[in-house]
Amino acid sequence: MRVLFNSRAKHDYLSDALTLLSGWTREGEQIRRTLVIDDTQHAALTERVKVVADALHLRPEISRRADSTQIRVGHGSGEPLTEGEVLLAARIEDAYRAVTEG
After folding, report:
1. Which residue has the higher pLDDT, 50 or 4?
2. Long-range contacts of 89-94 (CB under 8 A, 24+ apart)
3. Fewest C-beta in 10 Å: which of 27, 31, 74, 90?
4. 68-74 sheet: strands from edge to edge
5. What is the model's pLDDT at position 51?
6. In total, how many domains does the chain have?
7. If 0-12 CB within 10 Å is exposed, 13-18 middle and 19+ buried, where does residue 40 land?
8. CA angle 82-75-71, nearest 5°?
């Protein structure tokens, strides 16, 4: 049996997936996360995120401000959030854990 998903079901699926990503907030069609990490951890995180983002053909915005790193994922141009962008956020969480626990 095949199940067809309409755009509303897809949106609900992505919203449900986002609730599992603690610390991420939604701003329109973008999601954002602020991480309190040092410069060395920021560099390691950025390298790990670049590898995953390149594989997914996505370009997150990563910036350093004082003692924190800010990350934005999504187009912000009225385009809806995609499964790939939510997946990227999950992989960023994995990378964050790796650089802070190591």
Report:
1. 50
2. 89/18, 89/21, 89/24, 89/31, 89/33, 90/17, 90/20, 90/21, 91/49, 91/52, 92/33, 92/45, 92/49, 92/52, 92/60, 93/21, 93/23
3. 27
4. 25-27, 30-36, 68-74, 61-65
5. 97
6. 1
7. exposed
8. 95
Count the Cβ atoms, other than its own, within 10 Å of residue 26.
13
Give the global pTM. 0.83
27 φ, ψ to 5°? Answer: -125, 90
SS3 41: helix
Q: Tell me the C-alpha to C-alpha distance, in Å, between residue 79 and each of 23, 41, 65, 67, 82.
A: 22, 31, 27, 31, 9
Domain coverage including residue 56: 4-101
Q: What is the CATH number of the domain that holds 77?
A: 3.30.1360.20
pLDDT attached to residue 2 = 45
Locate 19 and state its tokens: 């609730």
